[in-house]
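Lab meeting, item 3. Inverse folding demo.
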C-alpha cells in the first residue's frame, strides 16, 4: 500500500501543525483518504514523532479521541517494554532508511488493554525531498489473520467445488477473456489441460477447440464471430440465458450460458451423449412393444391419424385388423411364458408377410394391425390378409409344444378426408367382428351397414345384471408367497363368471362392459364383501389383495363401501390391500389421490399393479401413498430369454428398495424366473409356478403351509 503525500498541502521545508490537521471541507480527496479509512487506524507524525492527525479508524482501534492524543508522542501507544527497548525510534529510523516498514507488535489502547497490531510506516517528503514526517497505518492483526484464513478456506472450498462438479465451467469478463475454468471444462472438450489459461480470449479458445475437432477454419471463424456477437455485443438483451447443443468429436455437448449484468458471462458445459442416447431409447420404448419390438398402439395411432388426414382418392390406404384365434387357450393351457413366445413368433411371421412399405404394429394382447401403403386394390388388400392367415395357420414349435392357432382379419379401405382415425379403426373392428362370426380364420372387408358389436355388449350387460342377482359370480384366489420360504403371505381375489348357456366368460370380456355401463360400483362392492368374508377365515398373517378399477375407485361412496365390507366381515384393515393400475390415477388424478389417501388413513394397503407398463409409473410413486409395487407379468415372462426384461426388473427393484417399498412379482411360471427374481431380492412372488387360482375351499393346502 503506497501512502505518500497524504494530507500534505505545504510544499515548504518547514512542517507546522496545520499541515497535519484534518483536511478542510474544500479538500474532499484528502478528507476521504485520511478520515474515511474506516477499519484502519491512519495517522500522521511529524519528524519528531508527534501525532498530528488521527482518523476515525485510529479512534476506534486505540480508544483515544483525536483531542486526547493529537500533540502527544506516538510512543504512548507502545508497551512499556517496547518503549524501554527503544522500539518506537527504531521503527521510524527503519522506515526512513528503507522507505517503508511493515511489522507487527503489541500496542496499548487508552483503557490499558493491549492487542497485536499490524503496522505500516512510510516517510513523507516534501516537494524538495526534505523529510516532512511519517504516515502510519495500523490494524488489528488478529482480525486480519482470521479474515485471511476465512478467505483462504472459502477459496479452497470454491476450488474443491469447481474440481468436483460434473459439468465444465468457465467465466469470461466483459472483454471476452477467460477469468477462470475448472478441469472438467478441458476434459469435456477433450483439450489438454495446459491449452487453456487464464486471460485467454474467447476467440483463441474456440479456435483451439475447432482445431482439436478438425473443424474447417472458415466454419470456425464464422462460429467465433457469432459467439462474440451473441455474448459480447448482446443484441438480444431480453435473453439472459442461452442454451445450445453441439456435436464435438462424436459427442453431444450441452452449453448453457448465462449473461452477467455487469458484462461477461458464465457457461456450464456438459457431455450429454449418454443422456441423449437414453432419451432416444426411452422414446423408442414408448413407441414399441417390449415383447415383439413392433410399433405399439401409440405409434400406430400416430401413423393412422396422419394417414387419415391426408387420405384421398389419389392417396388411399388399407387397414387390416388381425386378431389371433384360440390364443387364450394357449395361455390357459401352457402358461403366459409360452403365450409370449408364441406372440414373438407370430410377429416374425407377420413381418415376413408384409412388404417393406407396409406398417405392422401390435396393438394389445393378441391384436395386430397393418397399414397397407400404398393401397392399389381390394384384391391386393385381401391377398395380404390371406397371406397372413395362411402363414399363421402353419403349426408353431414353442418350448417343445406344437401349437396351432388361426387369425381373423378385418379390412377397411380409406380413401377420403374428413373421417378421423378412431372411426377408421372402429370400421376395421366391425369387419373383424364379422370375420369371427363367420367362423374365424378368414377375412372380411368393411361394408356400410355392418352389424355393430353394440348389440353384443347390450346382451352381455343384461346377462351380467342377471348374474349379480342370481349369484352366478364367484371368486377364485391365487396365493402370493414369500420369495425365500415359499410360505403363503397373501391371496389375490379374481372374479369368475360361468354363464349358464355360454360357459366361462373371461373378465377381459365382461369387465370393460361393466365399466362402460356403470356396473362396476355394484360389482366391486360384491367382490369386496365376498372377499372380506372369505379372508377373515384365513390365518391372521395372510393378506387379502383385491383389484379396484377406475370406475370403482372414483365412485362417491367407495370408501364407505370399503369400510362397510371390512366391518361386516370383521376383517382388520391392515389385512386388506387394494391393487390399482396407473390408469386409475391418470383418469382422475386429483380425486383418485384424495381417495387413496383416505384409504391409507383407514389402514388399508395400496399396491401399484402392473408397474412399469405405463409411462407415468415413476412420477406416481412420489405422489401416491403406495405400500407395495407389483411388477408387470410382461417383464417377468421375459426373464431367461430377454435381456431387456432383466434390465427393467433390476431397475424397478433398485428404485423400490431406495423408496423402501416391498415388491411382488406376478406371472412367475418357471424356476428360472423364480431364481432371477430371488437374485433381484423381490419380497413376494405370484404365478402358476406356485399355484393356480382356485376357489376359497381349495386354498387349505396353501394357507396351512
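The presenter then showed the designed sequence:
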Amino acid at each position: 500500500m503506497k501512502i505518500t503525500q497524504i494530507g500534505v498541502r505545504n510544499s515548504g521545508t518547514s512542517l507546522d501543525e496545520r499541515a497535519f490537521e484534518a483536511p478542510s471541507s474544500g479538500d474532499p480527496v484528502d478528507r476521504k483518504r485520511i478520515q474515511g479509512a474506516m477499519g484502519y487506524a491512519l495517522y500522521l507524525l511529524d519528524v519528531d514523532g508527534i501525532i498530528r492527525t488521527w482518523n476515525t479508524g485510529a479512534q476506534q482501534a486505540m480508544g483515544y479521541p483525536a483531542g486526547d492524543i493529537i500533540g502527544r508522542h506516538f510512543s504512548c501507544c507502545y508497551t512499556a517494554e517496547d518503549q524501554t527497548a527503544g522500539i518506537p525510534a527504531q521503527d521510524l529510523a527503519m522506515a526512513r532508511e528503507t522507505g517503508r516498514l511493515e511489522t507487527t507488535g503489541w500496542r496499548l489502547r487508552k483503557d490499558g488493554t493491549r492487542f497485536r497490531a499490524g503496522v505500516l510506516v512510510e516517510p513523507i517528503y516534501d516537494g524538495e525531498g526534505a523529510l516532512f514526517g511519517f504516515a502510519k497505518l495500523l490494524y488489528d492483526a488478529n482480525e486480519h489473520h482470521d479474515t485471511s484464513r476465512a478467505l483462504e478456506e472459502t477459496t479452497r472450498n470454491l476450488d474443491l467445488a469447481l474440481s468436483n462438479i460434473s459439468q465444465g465451467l468457465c467465466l469470461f469478463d466483459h472483454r471476452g477473456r477467460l477469468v477462470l475454468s475448472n478441469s472438467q471444462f478441458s476434459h469435456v472438450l477433450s483439450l489438454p489441460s495446459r491449452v487453456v489459461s487464464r486471460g485467454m480470449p474467447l476467440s483463441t479458445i474456440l479456435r483451439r477447440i475447432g482445431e482439436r475437432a478438425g473443424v474447417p477454419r472458415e466454419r470456425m471463424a464464422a462460429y467465433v464471430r457469432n459467439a462474440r456477437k451473441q455474448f459480447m455485443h448482446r443484441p438480444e438483451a431480453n435473453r439472459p440465458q442461452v442454451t445450445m447443443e453441439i456435436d464435438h468429436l462424436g459427442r453431444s455437448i450441452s452449453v448453457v450460458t448465462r449473461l452477467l449484468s455487469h458484462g461477461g458471462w458464465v457457461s456450464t458445459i456438459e457431455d450429454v451423449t449418454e443422456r441423449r442416447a437414453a432419451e432416444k431409447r426411452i422414446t423408442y420404448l414408448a413407441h414399441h412393444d417390449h415383447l415383439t419390438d413392433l410399433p405399439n398402439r401409440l405409434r400406430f395411432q400416430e401413423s393412422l391419424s396422419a394417414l387419415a388426414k391426408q387420405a384421398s382418392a389419389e392417396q388411399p390406404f388399407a387397414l387390416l385388423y388381425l386378431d389371433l384365434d384360440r390364443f387364450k387357450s394357449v395361455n390357459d393351457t401352457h402358461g403366459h411364458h409360452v403365450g409370449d413366445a408364441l406372440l414373438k413368433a407370430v410377429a416374425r411371421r407377420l413381418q415376413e408377410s408384409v412388404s417393406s412399405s407396409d406398417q405392422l404394429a401390435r396393438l394389445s394382447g393378441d391384436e395386430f394391425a397393418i397399414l397397407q401403403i400404398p393401397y392399389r386394390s381390394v384384391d391386393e388388400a385381401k391377398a395380404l390378409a390371406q397371406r397372413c392367415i395362411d402363414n399363421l395357420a402353419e403349426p408353431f414349435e414353442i418350448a417343445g409344444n406344437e401349437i396351432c392357432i388361426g387369425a381373423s382379419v378385418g379390412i377397411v379401405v380409406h380413401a377420403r378426408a374428413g373421417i378421423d382415425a378412431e372411426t377408421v379403426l372402429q370400421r376395421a373392428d366391425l369387419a373383424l367382428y364379422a370375420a369371427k362370426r363367420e367362423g374365424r380364420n378368414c377375412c372380411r372387408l368393411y361394408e356400410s351397414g355392418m352389424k355393430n358389436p353394440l348389440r353384443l355388449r347390450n346382451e352381455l350387460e343384461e346377462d351380467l345384471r342377471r348374474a349379480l342377482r342370481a349369484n352366478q359370480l364367484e371368486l377364485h384366489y391365487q396365493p402370493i408367497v414369500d420369495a425365500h420360504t415359499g410360505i403363503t403371505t397373501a391371496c389375490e381375489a379374481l372374479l369368475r363368471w360361468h354363464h349358464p348357456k355360454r360357459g366361462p366368460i373371461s373378465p377381459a370380456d365382461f369387465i370393460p362392459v361393466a365399466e362402460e355401463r356403470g356396473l362396476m360400483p355394484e360389482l366391486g362392492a360384491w367382490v369386496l364383501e365376498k372377499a372380506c368374508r372369505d379372508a377373515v377365515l384365513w390365518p391372521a398373517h395372510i393378506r387379502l389383495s383385491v383389484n379396484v378399477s377406475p370406475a370403482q375407485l372414483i365412485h362417491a361412496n367407495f370408501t364407505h363401501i370399503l369400510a362397510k365390507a371390512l366391518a361386516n366381515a370383521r376383517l382388520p384393515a391392515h389385512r386388506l390391500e387394494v391393487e390399482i393400475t396407473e390408469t386409475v390415477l391418470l383418469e382422475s388424478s386429483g380425486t383418485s389421490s384424495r381417495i387413496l389417501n383416505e384409504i391409507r388413513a383407514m389402514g388399508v394397503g395400496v399396491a401399484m399393479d402392473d408397474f412399469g407398463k405405463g409411462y407415468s409409473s415413476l412420477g406416481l410413486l412420489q405422489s401416491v401413498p403406495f405400500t407395495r409395487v407389483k411388477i408387470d407379468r410382461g417383464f417377468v415372462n421375459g426373464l431367461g430369454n430377454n435381456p431387456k426384461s432383466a434390465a427393467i426388473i433390476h431397475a424397478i427393484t433398485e428404485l423400490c428398495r431406495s423408496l423402501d417399498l416391498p415388491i411382488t412379482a406376478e406371472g412367475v411360471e418357471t424356476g428360472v424366473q423364480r431364481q432371477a427374481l430371488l437374485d433381484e431380492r423381490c419380497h413376494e412372488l405370484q404365478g402358476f409356478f406356485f399355484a393356480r387360482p382356485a376357489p376359497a375351499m381349495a386354498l387349505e393346502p396353501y394357507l396351512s403351509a
